[in-house]
Amino acid sequence: QTLDDLGEIAGQIALVRVDFNVPIGNDGAVGDDTRLRASLPTVMALRRRGAVILLLSHLGRPKGKPNAAFSLAPVAKTYSSLLGDEVHFLEDWTGPGAQRAVSELEAGDVALLENTRFYAGEESNDPELASAMADLADFYVNDAFSASHRAHASTVGVARLLPSYMGRALEDEIGALQSATGLGRRPSTAIIGGAKISSKLNVLEQLSTKVDNLIIGGAMANTFLAALNKPIGRSLAERNLEDAALRILKSASQGKCQIHLPQDVMVGRELTPHPLSLRTALVEDVAADEMILDLGPLTVAKTLDVLRSSQLLIWNGPLGAFETPPFETSTFAIAQAAAELTRKGSLTSLAGGGDTVAALNNSGLTADLTHVSTGGGAFLEWVAGIALPGLQVLT
Ligand code: 3PG
């Protein structure tokens, strides 16, 4: 059900799960307010209809304990300026005073609740915490696609206890993903980068049964190369996951998916801007004191060939150490090619994940892709066909 299915809500209290997990600088300023802006259509719609709005979100991973470094207080300030109105901040929303504080809010008021992950019960989906959330409100709205892959109290537990609806940002996100993937465009290519296989193991396995090409880059590729007995020197890798990497390669080779690993790489002895030790090496030829820091030109050229013959691109994760020049080279080359092919109409391109979106923003190409998701893990799981518990509970 969407906001259009809500009846009369004037004076009612809406508990809206947003994802305000945003970068906050040492000065308390929000680094990227995309996720805050994404929630405005839902908040404005509920305000116009006279509801009181309680916003619920996590920030970072404070491990179930209050921690000032992960407080949402600075986010409430930024949100006030985006909304052009006061945003109340409720630090304690489970204690005896919480009900009273909420009852003092008036129709159209917006309040942000302190970080849900200050409570251990959030991640364990503790029924007591979910009831404490539900007791504050009359109905629940999930507007946090990017947190919907987590089965937590604020995404699943509370949704079982209150009448629940999809917010506008969630509806838009799912609509965009469905229309991009729904037509079965083939050949399909997933480009997966980033540092860790461990966080994407399940997704890689699923994707390798779904797409025609799986291109692996970033530090994640190093684990695959090491598993294939290639020398990776001092490169970042998860040695304990070499077996998992081999399993993925094997299952892909039995199906229709072709896995593409780097053939050549940019290496250096230190990760500093333009290191003197920078050179291009074949993957058989990385020295013991070198680190793989980006894809090499041969691999980039091959990746672009695959993209040119693809109809659908799913992209998550940078392909090199893109924050340190010149190791953004392959990530930017691929962003540029994806943007150009999308503009020409030959490619439908989907991208998601904090670093990928940052790289796209830096190169000014975000608007050229078919859809840039607000989600990272949630985006990947959705495109891999894994059911998201926060969405399942709404249906
Ligand atoms: C994200 O940034 O992808 C979401 O907010 C989820 O955060 P998490 O990985 O800490 O659950």
Automatic annotation (TrEMBL):
Domain of life of the organism encoding this protein: Bacteria
Record keywords: ATP-binding, Cytoplasm, Glycolysis, Kinase, Nucleotide-binding, Transferase
Alphabetical list of Pfam families matching this protein: PGK
Binding site for (2R)-3-phosphoglycerate: 35, 117, 150
Binding residues for substrate: 19-21, 35, 58-61, 117, 150
Subcellular location: Cytoplasm
InterPro entries given in the database record: Phosphoglycerate_kinase, Phosphoglycerate_kinase_N, Phosphoglycerate_kinase_sf
Reaction catalyzed: (2R)-3-phosphoglycerate + ATP = (2R)-3-phospho-glyceroyl phosphate + ADP
Biological process (GO), any one: glycolytic process
Pathway: Carbohydrate degradation; glycolysis; pyruvate from D-glyceraldehyde 3-phosphate: step 2/5
Subunit text: Monomer.
Similarity annotation: Belongs to the phosphoglycerate kinase family.
Protein name listed in UniProt: Phosphoglycerate kinase
Encoding gene per record: pgk
